[in-house]
Specification:
This protein is mostly beta strands. It has 1 helix and 11 strands, in the order αβββββββββββ. The strands form 3 sheets. Strands 1, 4, 9, 10 and 11 form a 5-stranded mixed beta sheet that branches. It has a 4-stranded antiparallel beta sheet with strand order 3-2-7-8, with no helix packed on it. It is globular, with a radius of gyration of 18 Å.
Length: 189
C-alpha cells in the first residue's frame, strides 16, 4: 500500500537574506557618479514601529526614458541610454531597519489601455515572518502625472501618501510600515 503525502507547508522568506541574497553591487541600480543619480533611503518597521533588521528590498524600474531592456516591454526591449543602468536593485536592512538604493528617476510608462503611469519604482519586500513578498511602489512627490496615474487612482486617497517618497538631502526617503496605523499600501500581484 502506498502512503499518500500531503503538500509541503509554506515557509517564511527569512531570516537568511543577509547570508545568501545580498551582494556588494546590490543597492546600485546605477553606478556611483552617474549624472542625475540619487539615493532612496528608508526604514522598514513592523506594526509596533520596531525596526525590521533582517529584511530585504528589491526594486525594479524603467529607465529615464520609460523603457525596459526586457522582452516583456510591449514596445520592445531597448538598452538604457544611461551607462550602467540595471533597472534592478537589492538592499538588505541594517539592525535599525534602514535600507538604501542608488538610482535615477524613471520615466513615465504607457499602459495597455493607452493611459500613462507616473514615474515610479516597484518594490518587493522580503523578511522574517512573511510567507510571500510584499509589493508596493514609490512615487515622487513633485510629479504632476501622479494625479492621473491609473494605479495610484485605485488607492484610497487617505492612504496614497504611504506610496509617495519625501525629499531628502541626497535624494528621497521612503519608509515602509508592514502593519498597523499608516501601513504602507501593498498590492496583490
Amino acid at each position: 500500500m502506498s502512503e499518500r503525502l500531503g503538500v509541503t507547508p509554506a515557509q517564511t522568506v527569512g531570516p537568511y537574506l543577509h547570508i545568501g541574497l545580498s551582494w556588494p553591487d546590490g543597492p546600485y541600480v546605477v553606478p556611483e557618479g552617474t549624472p542625475g543619480a540619487f539615493w532612496i533611503r528608508g526604514r522598514i518597521v513592523d506594526g509596533t514601529g520596531a525596526p525590521v533588521g533582517d529584511a530585504m528590498v528589491e526594486s525594479w524600474q524603467a529607465d529615464p526614458d520609460g523603457h525596459f531592456d526586457h522582452p516583456d516591454d510591449p514596445r520592445g526591449a531597448r538598452a538604457a541610454t544611461v551607462p550602467g543602468f540595471r533597472g534592478f536593485g537589492r538592499a538588505d536592512t541594517d539592525a535599525e531597519g534602514w535600507y538604501a538604493l542608488h538610482t535615477v528617476r524613471p520615466g513615465p510608462l504607457p499602459t495597455p489601455d493607452g493611459e500613462t503611469e507616473a514615474p515610479h519604482l516597484n518594490l518587493s519586500v522580503f523578511g522574517r515572518g512573511l510567507l510571500h513578498r510584499l509589493v508596493t511602489r514609490i512615487y515622487f512627490p513633485d510629479e504632476p502625472a501622479n494625479a492621473a496615474d491609473p494605479v495610484l487612482r485605485t488607492v484610497d486617497p487617505g492612504r496614497r501618501d504611504t506610496l509617495v517618497a519625501r525629499p531628502a538631502a541626497d535624494g528621497y526617503r521612503f519608509d515602509i510600515r508592514l502593519q498597523g496605523e499608516h501601513e504602507t499600501v501593498f498590492f496583490a500581484v
